[in-house]
């Protein structure tokens, strides 16, 4: 099945000329087939350990590439989210299944079997839990570090519904990279996010940085939802003021017919322009491109900035 089969989009022409108007994926969104053997091995590890990945649950377009490199982003606390955001295809449930006490060990074993040196752990929003699942996420981090003491860890969290006491649990555990996506520009936020707000996300990112100045803080946005260049620039300015160390910008793609349609296919040259704008605003590391996702090739940042990252010993 091709990417075009998975995403039903009808983009419109923009005055900037950065949009493909034919209703078909432009050439820069076509991908070569990956190496199949390691892809199969990654599936085997994930299935045998009964863990979830955001790659599969959110229908990430990079799944085949990442699995073929024997890497994946783990999705913890089940595969049902208490929020029903307009862009995300993860299953929605008002009352998800209870947390699995054995999940931390299974995630750790999966990371070990895949031979990961950097692991990204994300989560569904669990507004049904008093702490939003923060304690469980800490247990996952601790299990991974116990199994792989030299590994670096990146957490991609929800906003914990504004519960900063829950957030403190994650900060105290000190993942090498703390990630929380602001997702889009201020104007479009109410249309695509079920509960999270633009200002809450900014305050969360800023709070983490203020608590631990050496903590690497990361965020990301999608474009192609009808935002303007001025709005993207303002969002980058806001993230710079929140002292984000890393920002990612990628093309929004519609994961199913039930989700928001793509308004624009953004040309790669525009992504390069945003990358330059972000760096000029003071964001040290900005990665932008059609297939860039929050955790896509995140290990490359760790390798590039190895001397800046101190592996926590627990």
Can you walk through the features of this model?
The structure is a single chain. This protein has 314 residues and is α/β, with parallel strands linked by helices. The protein has helices spanning 3-6, 36-48, 54-57, 63-68, 103-114, 134-147, 164-173, 189-192, 198-211, 229-241, 268-280, 298-304; strands at residues 52-53, 73-76, 80-81, 91-92, 118-123, 152-156, 177-179, 216-223, 246-251, 285-288. It has 12 helices and 10 strands. The protein has an 8-stranded mixed β-sheet, sandwiched between helices. A two-stranded parallel sheet has the order 3-4. α10 (229-241) links the parallel β8 and β9 (246-251). The chain starts with a helix and ends in a 10-residue tail after the last helix. Mean pLDDT is 87; it is low at 1-22 and 310-314.
Overall geometric form: globular
Beta-strand percent range: 5-15%
**For the record, what is the CATH homologous superfamily label?**
Aldolase class I
Rg over C-alpha atoms, rounded to the nearest angstrom:
18 Å
Number of helices: 12
CATH level 1 class label: Alpha Beta
Instruction: Give the rounded overall mean pLDDT.
Output: 87
Oligomer state of the chains in this structure: single chain
SSE order, one letter for each helix or strand: HHEHHEEEHEHEHEHHEHEHEH
CATH architecture: Alpha-Beta Barrel
How many domains, in number, for the residues? 1
The residue fraction in helices comes out at: 25-40%
Low-confidence stretches: 1-22, 310-314
Main β-sheet description: 8 strands, mixed
């Amino acid at each position: 099945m091709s990417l075009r089969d998975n995403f039903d989009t009808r983009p419109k022409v923009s005055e900037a000329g950065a949009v493909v108007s034919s209703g078909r994926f432009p050439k820069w969104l076509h991908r070569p087939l990956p190496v199949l053997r390691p892809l199969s091995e990654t599936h085997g590890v994930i299935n045998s350990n009964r863990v979830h990945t955001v790659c599969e649950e959110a229908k990430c377009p990079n799944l085949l590439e990442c699995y073929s490199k024997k890497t994946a982003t783990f999705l913890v606390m089940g595969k049902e989210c208490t929020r029903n955001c307009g862009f995300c295809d993860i299953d929605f449930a008002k009352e998800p299944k209870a947390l699995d006490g054995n999940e931390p060990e299974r995630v750790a074993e999966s990371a070990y079997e895949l031979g990961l040196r950097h692991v990204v752990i994300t989560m569904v929003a669990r507004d049904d839990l008093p702490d939003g699942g923060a304690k469980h996420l800490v247990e996952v981090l601790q299990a991974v570090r116990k199994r792989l003491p030299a590994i670096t860890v990146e957490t991609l969290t929800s906003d914990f519904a504004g519960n900063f006491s829950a957030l403190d649990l994650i900060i105290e555990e000190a993942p090498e990279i703390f990630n929380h996506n602001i997702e889009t520009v201020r104007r479009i936020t109410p249309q695509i996010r079920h509960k999270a707000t633009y200002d809450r996300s900014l305050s969360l990112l800023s709070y983490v940085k203020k608590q631990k100045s050496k903590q690497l803080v990361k965020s990301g946005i999608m474009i192609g939802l009808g935002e303007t260049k001025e709005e993207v620039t303002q969002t980058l300015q806001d993230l710079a003021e929140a002292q984000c160390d890393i920002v990612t910008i990628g093309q929004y793609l519609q994961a199913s017919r039930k989700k928001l349609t793509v308004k624009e296919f953004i040309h790669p040259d525009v992504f390069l322009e945003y990358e330059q704008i972000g760096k000029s605003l003071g964001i040290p590391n900005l990665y932008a491109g059609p297939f860039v996702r929050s955790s896509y090739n995140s290990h490359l940042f760790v390798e590039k900035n190895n001397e800046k990252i101190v592996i926590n010993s627990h």
